[in-house]
Amino acid sequence: MKRWLLLGSLVLATAMPLLRGAVYQATGIKIGEVTADSAIVWTRLTSVKEPHRDGLKFVEMKRREAEAREPSAQMPAGATLAEMERAVPGARGALRVVWTPAGGKDSQATPWTDVNPAADFTTQFKLSGLQAGTTYQLRVESRDATGEAGEVLEGGFRTPPAEDQASGVRFIITTCHDDWRRDDREDGFKMYRAAAKWAPEFFVHTGDFVYLDKPMPFALTPEFARFKWNRTSAWPSVREFYRNTSAYFIKDDHDISHNDSAPGDQFGALSFQKGVDIVDEQLPIPDAPSYRSVRWGQHLEVWLLESREYRNARKREAVSERTLLGEEQKKWLFESLKKSTATFRLVISGTPIVGPNVDYKGGDSGDSLADEVFHSEGEEVRRVLASLPNTFVVAGDRHWQYHSVDPKTGLNEFACGPACFGMAQEFVDKVKRSAMHRFLRIDGGFFSGEIARASDGAMRLVVRHHDVNGSIVYEHAFDAALARASAR
Questions:
Q1: For residue 65, what are the contacts with CB-CB under 8 A and spacing of at least 6?
Q2: How far apart are CA 63 and CA 267, in angstroms?
Q3: Distance (Å, whole) CA 216 – CA 219
Q4: pTM over cut 0.70
């Protein structure tokens, strides 16, 4: 796998793009929801090869001022979004995907499919009939509305091993990145380059891929929201990572509209539901229900929770009736966890389940199962998860890395932390170590896990926190055979 990824990187560096034509794919491709026999390839056609580097600057203003004025007031008078800095305008045309098992000769191809201008010139392809535990090479071809050939992107991904295959697996998880707080001005985010070198079989982004409620511009309309999605996806480090990685995505509040957003909320002219629709348009996320699990061989099953769409009104409900997950998702979670035969159960949540809560907002502003707002449901979920062997949680949303243990149940939770220090900086003086913490680091980076057989024959899961350059800053081991854990 490592050798193939290196070869793929060299090919992409020397041969991209293979064709130069009237249309391009400046926002890259994303290969998501990979199972043992299927995958979704997300694509978008653009009229430019690279973002508009010398575009017009957005007008700096506070959120209240922006909400009180027309959204266009955030741009110079008479300007359009296509003229703004790092704009990536869409284009009409068609795309198709060609895929081949690595080293094989039998290629398959989707039909040519027109992009949808109403969906930001995107389209998504469902690949089926794939082989378990197989590396695939793919090529995304494009042509403009007249049929002239456009840019071609190449990439690849790996399908999970079959459930009865006792293979090792390596994965990476991160959360939260914002264009204006990135740590590489030209490339985007250092974390993606480091994550690629770590060569994961799969990757999970737990949400807040974009920040629609942050300035320059505030995404007070669907058009501004799409502009921000395009800008983030077009950074070189982001494009290169996702075209060679099996990925899964969870949406969170800033992806949809504003901080702590819930069904029924409104952000300017952007409704909560429209924000959800745009996420589904911009990422390879499956149709409802958006909660799901995926098996990676004999030793790992992963649950991806939906923390936004099923929550009820937080302040109007009695504590015992408040729900973040919704009854249907919660029933599915508990039943599927108990039925799983995987050695390790990994529950990935867009928001914390253990915490601890850090009350830097004050009042009834909790937004996770670790908060008092959802106290009853949080206790129920922690109790069930802790009752199952080799089950732990990785949480997104928090702008700091941690390992904590619930004092009542002993459930372990790891916060993967944000992608860069710019996202953590404002919390340096707000977040303090508590008795629940085994590790706390207020900085950017990513979280990784690796399952392998130890020298004593036991299957061992080693989890690690990394900095943005990939260096290990914390390590913790779960030994399935001995049902114990050790840390250093």
A1: none
A2: 11
A3: 9
A4: yes
Alpha helices in 284-374 (DSSP H): 327-339
For 183-219, what is each residue's pLDDT tens digit? 999 999 999 999 999 999 999 999 999 999 999 999 9
- Quote the CA–CA distance of 465 and 476 in Å, as a whole number: 9
Give burial (CB, 10 Å; 0-12/13-18/19+) of 335.
exposed
- In 3-state terms, what secondary structure has residue 404? strand
Structure-token pair, residue 308: 């936004």
Q: Length of the chain in residues, anyone?
A: 488
Confidence grade of residue 314 (pLDDT, cut at 50, 70, 90): low
**173 Cβ contact partners less than 8 Å away, ≥ 6 residues apart:** 203, 204, 205, 206, 348, 394, 396, 416, 446, 447, 448, 449
Whether residues 154 and 185 fall in one domain? no
φ, ψ (nearest 5 deg) of residue 395: -115, 145
Give the pairing type, strands 446-453 and 108-109.
unpaired
Q: Is residue 219 part of a domain?
A: yes
Residue 16 has pLDDT above 60, yes or no: no
**Does 58 map to a domain?**
no
Element (H, E) at 103: none
CA distance 340 to 387: 13
Do 175 and 26 belong together in one domain?
Answer: no
Do 178 and 255 reside in the same domain of the chain? Answer: yes
Token representation of residue 275: 């924000």
Domain that holds residue 274: 169-487
Domain contains 147: yes
Residue labelled with tokens 């098992």:
101
φ, ψ at 201 (rounded to 5°):
-70, -35
**293 forms bridges with which residues in the sheet?**
303
DSSP 296-321: -SSSEEEEE---STT---TTTS-GGG
Amino acid at residue number 74: Q
Q: What is the pLDDT of residue 172?
A: 98
CA dist., res. 324 & res. 331, Å (int): 13
Residue 374 near residue 366 (C-beta atoms within 8 A):
yes
| Lookup: tokens for 434 | 């508590």
CA distances 47 to 51, 94, 279, Å, are 10, 13, 22
Is residue 278 within 8 Å of residue 225, measured between CB atoms? yes
